[in-house]
Amino acid sequence: MQTLHAIYENGIFRPIEPVNLPDTCEQRGAVVRWGN
Q: For residues 32 and 7, what is the distance between their CA atoms, to the nearest angstrom?
């Protein structure tokens, strides 16, 4: 399993570093809020 770090912006999750995933792979995620 790989951990991805991403920013949610304008309705899209954008990774903050390159990821190596095959096209059309399914993802699950948890949202962690930092700060306020």
A: 10
